[in-house]
Structure to design on (302 residues):
């Protein structure tokens, strides 16, 4: 796996950029300023965004994968056989209580979108967004006003739910009272447990995920933010754009193909605090006022 990924990176950077000479062999390293200019001047109109927990931690949502601050460390009180069991479908069928206790904490509307979510909304409003692929199940993209059709919620959503027995569909809102009361929601028809459409370990990815097969070849810019690129198959999407396509990483650390040594000239990494990185891009775009306006409306509405 690692070997073929490294090979893919070599082909991506060397193959397309003339590693062995040729007119494109001296391609200039792109910068955040170049990316901003290309967005501003409408050369990037089909932007795909990939995001993970790092865009939601600034909203106060616990990151389940960071040791120390992570949710897994706070799970002892649930008396689980091991931490990941909370998201395992077989364990859920055996005992749904820990998941619903957690769901109460994670439940959307307990948290507010932050600048990164509103930036994606603004990309959409301005006609630059092709799609957003998120690993997050907090629904903050929707709360920021990104339309559901622009979203691929790769690990599912609380917005919809399904009876685990008769497969009847429910709206997330219909479970809200039960979840907030700490009661396991039950189907009105068969009394089976209703599970929010969060993708558990041992479950298939939502069909929507496979939209990537058409989205990624069409993308003209890939923005990756707030993700460790460690969970497959999500992580591999970073290599699914055409080799000539610019990729911008806004993240606390270099991850995935950005951490593999010699960078591609069209890969740009803005390493550090994610909100600050996005803010820097927004300032270069000259969109700060519009973003502030969106954010203040969002705050009033909630
Ligand atoms: Zn049912």
């Amino acid at each position: 796996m690692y070997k073929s990924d490294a090979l893919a990176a070599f082909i991506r950077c060397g193959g397309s950029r003339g590693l062995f000479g040729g007119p494109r062999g001296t391609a200039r390293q792109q910068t955040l300023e170049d990316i901003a200019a290309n967005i501003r001047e409408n050369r990037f109109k089909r932007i795909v965004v990939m995001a993970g927990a790092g865009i939601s931690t600034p909203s106060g949502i616990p990151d389940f994968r960071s040791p120390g601050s992570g949710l897994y460390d706070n799970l002892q009180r649930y008396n689980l056989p091991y931490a990941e069991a909370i998201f395992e479908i077989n364990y859920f069928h055996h005992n749904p209580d820990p998941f619903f206790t957690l769901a109460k904490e994670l439940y959307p509307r307990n948290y507010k979108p932050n600048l990164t979510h509103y930036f994606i909304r603004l990309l959409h409003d301005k006609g630059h967004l092709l799609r957003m692929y998120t690993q997050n199940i907090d629904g903050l993209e929707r709360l920021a006003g990104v339309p559901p059709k622009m979203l691929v919620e790769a690990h599912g959503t609380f917005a919809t739910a399904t009876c685990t027995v008769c497969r009847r569909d429910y709206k997330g809102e219909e479970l809200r009272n039960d979840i907030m009361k700490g009661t396991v929601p039950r189907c009105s028809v068969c009394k089976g447990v209703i599970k929010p459409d969060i993708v558990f370990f041992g479950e298939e990815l939502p069909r929507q995920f496979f939209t990537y097969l058409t989205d990624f070849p069409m993308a003209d810019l890939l923005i990756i933010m707030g993700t460790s690129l460690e969970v497959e198959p999500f992580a591999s999407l970073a290599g699914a754009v055409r080799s000539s396509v610019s990729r911008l990483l806004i993240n606390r650390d270099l991850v995935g193909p950005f951490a593999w040594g010699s960078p591609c000239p069209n890969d740009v990494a803005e390493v550090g605090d994610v909100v600050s990185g996005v803010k820097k891009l927004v300032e270069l775009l000259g969109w700060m006022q519009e973003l502030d306006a969106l954010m203040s409306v969002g705050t009033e509405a909630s």
Observations:
- The first strand starts at residue 47 and ends at 51.
